[in-house]
Amino acid sequence: MISSMTGFAAAALEMPQGSLAVELKTVNHRYLEFQTRIPEEIRPLESAMREAVSGRLTRGKVDCRVTFTSVASAARSMTPNDEALAALQAAARQLVGRFPEARALSVAEILHWPGVLADESIRADTVKDALMALMDRALADLDQTRAREGAKLEIVLRERLERMSVLVKEAQPLLPAAIRAFQDKLAAKIAEANAAPSDERVHQEIVLYAARIDVDEELSRLATHIAEFTRVLGKGGACGKRLDFLCQELNREANTLGSKSVANEMTRISVELKVLIEQMREQVQNIE
Fold this sequence. Notes:
60% helix; 3 domains
């Protein structure tokens, strides 16, 4: 099965210290990009979370949000963190050196600065197992969501492919009819001019015209690309980039088909093909 790059999942766990929750939201992206919004106390676990995501996903922009709501009875340290204070002090001195008129930080602002007052109820070593278990649950739910969305996308793409196959078959008999029409038109003009050209000259004109409007190669490539697109869809997996490339090739052949068109019916088929291909490209952009 194919998977969409769009999805959402959430998981929560009640702990003695409070409630820990993980939210994952994914959208389409050329590569795998992982962004987090987590409490500073558990920032050391970000690399492990990133590895868990890269082990399950190959493409997409992943927005991960971790929240922790402590219970009222949870202990909270009122002793400022020396390292955080030193870093804040150094940054403040540097700014004052450049902007002497800047207002000094108040005690309340210092105490509310991230990392100054550590929350004793949540530490990386105490919540690691619980957080990674939540990540696994959320990722499993996310996989199912993306797979369901991918199944819907596959139905849409197969409908477009079937219609394109019909259009290619409709276009194949149009070329001989166009050549016969040109031959009849040429004969009528010769008769109208009361001219008597040699049969060899008439045959040469017909051959040149047929070569100029020949779209057999384009139709064959369209059929080949449609078959390959169908095969890749059936194989599934992370095939978004491959399908996007095939859409580009399909569009190239449809454009050439339109540029060689000498009949209204062929032009209509070319336009409809390009509309279908554009609709497919919009859907393919969301496939992993």
